């Protein structure tokens, strides 16, 4: 099951690469949705569940951790937006030099 999460993550990275190579300009909502999916929060949740030992590695617990819950989506959005903002600031500073 953990491999399935990594396959979804790489599929999302492939979609982002295709957008770039086709010079596709997605809408803000499409960009946020794909950006959230490429943060790896579902893969991280799956890995964390596996590392918690036998009590947390039941199929039900694993499914709960990797489904699109509000917590996972929110963590992905916050992480992606913070990364994008900091990347923009770094690029802005480099252009000034």
What is the CA-CA span between the terminal residues?
47 Å
- Mean pLDDT equals 81
Beta-strand segment tally = 0
Molecular shape? elongated
Radius of gyration: 16 Å
Largest sheet: none
Write a structural description:
The chain starts with a helix and ends with a helix. The protein has helices at about 1-20, 30-35, 40-50, 60-65, 70-95. The mean pLDDT is about 80. Helix 2 (about 30-35) packs across helix 5 (about 70-95). The protein has about 100 residues and is mainly α. The longest helix is centred in the C-terminal third of the chain and has 27 residues, at about 70-95. It is about 80% helix and about 0% strand. It is elongated.
What are the defining features of this structure?
97 residues, 5 helices, mainly alpha, 78% helix
Task: List the SSEs and their pairings.
Elements: H1 2-21, H2 28-37, H3 41-51, H4 59-66, H5 70-96
Helix pairs in contact: 1-3, 2-5, 3-4
Kindly summarize this structure in a few lines.
With about 100 residues, the protein is mainly α. It has 5 helices and no strands.
């Amino acid at each position: 099951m953990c491999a399935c999460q990594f396959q979804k993550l790489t599929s999302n990275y492939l979609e982002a690469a295709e957008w770039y190579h086709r010079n596709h300009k997605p809408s803000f909502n499409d960009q946020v949705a794909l950006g959230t999916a490429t943060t790896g929060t579902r893969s991280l949740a799956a890995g964390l569940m596996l590392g918690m030992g036998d009590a947390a590695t039941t199929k039900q617990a694993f499914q709960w951790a990797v489904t699109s819950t509000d917590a996972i989506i929110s963590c992905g959005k916050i992480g992606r937006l913070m990364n994008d903002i900091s990347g923009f600031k770094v690029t802005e500073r480099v252009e000034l030099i």
